[in-house]
Amino acid sequence: MTGRVAVVTGASSGIGAATARRLAAEGFDVVVGARRIDRLEALAAEIGGRAVGLDVTDQASVDAFCAAVPECAVLVNNAGGALGLDPVAEADLDRWEAMYATNVLGVIRVTKALLPAIVASGDGHIVTVGSIAAHEPYPGGAGYNAAKFGVRAAMSVLRQELLGQPVRVTEIDPGMVETEFSIVRFGGDEARAAKVYEGVTPLTADDVADCIAFAVTRPSHVNIDAMIVLARDQAGARHVHRHTP
Ligand code: 8X3
Fold first, then answer.
1. CA–CA separation, 229 vs 240, rounded Å?
2. Ligand 1 centre from 175 Cα, in Å?
3. What residue's CA is closest to ligand 1, atom 6?
4. What global pTM score does this model have?
5. How far from chain centre, in Å, is Cα 158?
6. Which domain holds residue 41?
7. Which of 16, 41, 129, 182 is 20 to 30 A from 32 in CA distance terms?
8. Active-site option among 100, 138, 144, 197
């Protein structure tokens, strides 16, 4: 048991929930944050953690969250996601703003607010869940690509700015992970979401949580700067091998 506090954002499902479970199993005192408080409380009860409501796009919500979490050693910035697959010519700018608000400003807002506690822990770690989309643009991806490239740039800057402080900064960039990601991206269209993973063995949320746990449980002097994690069936953002039944 480390007993150190680990905060996981976007923890009500998918990679966030899997990471919360895994970090609790590793002995962290886990605080889960998300907007869907019912699911969050069930998860917190399951893992012996604490649920605190969190909307990363709302400064008052982030302030209240941080007031409830005076100590924090590890922050996993997982909240985020994609909205649509619009070509630039048909961009829905409201959705693009929303992607920037969650994936970029949301991560920065939470990180900034928790940073004093993370530094004060004497052995802090900030892990951000990015995406292969932060490395490879693809048709229809521009709104999400821009957001994920943006947060990757910001956290790379943070890594440099924190040099000399007792804080590690890591980015985990997965490819296809079968979670609610595509259902949310396609506005609840489950058939369209299922097509994304058709004929492929995608990563699971647990696979990504495993990578996060690996980074977090290295000795303190080891900083996993970045990790791109793809399914064996995926060799690039849109380079996928689909098995026929
Ligand atoms: C999710 C992966 O390729 O749909 O972050 O952008 S992708």
1. 14
2. 5
3. 133
4. 0.97
5. 16
6. 5-231
7. 182
8. 144
Rounded Cα distance between 8 and 3, Å, is 15
227: domain CATH number is 3.40.50.720
Q: How far, in Å, CA of 127 to CA of 229, rounded?
A: 14
Instruction: Tell me phi and psi for residue 62, to 5 degrees.
Output: -65, -40
3 state SS of 52: strand
Q: What is the rounded distance in angstroms from the CA atom of residue 87 to the CA atom of residue 90? A: 5
Which atom, in ligand 1's list, is nearest to the CA of 181?
1
Interval between CA 45 and ligand 1 midpoint (Å)? 31
In a domain, 90, yes or no: yes
pLDDT single digits (tens) 105-156: 999 999 999 999 999 999 999 999 999 999 999 999 999 999 999 999 999 9
Question: CB within 6 Å of ligand 1 — which residues?
Answer: 131-133, 141, 144, 175, 237
Residue 197 known to be catalytic: no
Does 244 fall in a domain?
Answer: no
Which atom of ligand 1 sits closest to the CA of residue 238? 3
Pocket perturbation via mutation, ligand 1, pick of 86, 132, 178 by most ligand atoms within 8 A of CB = 132
Residue 205 within a domain: yes
- For residue range 50-63, list pLDDT tens digits in order: 999 999 999 999 99
Is the residue at 120 inside a domain?
yes
> What is the distance between the alpha carbons of residues 35 and 55, in angstroms, rounded to a whole number?
6
Say if CB 76 and CB 125 are below 8 A apart. no
Number of domains in the chain: 1
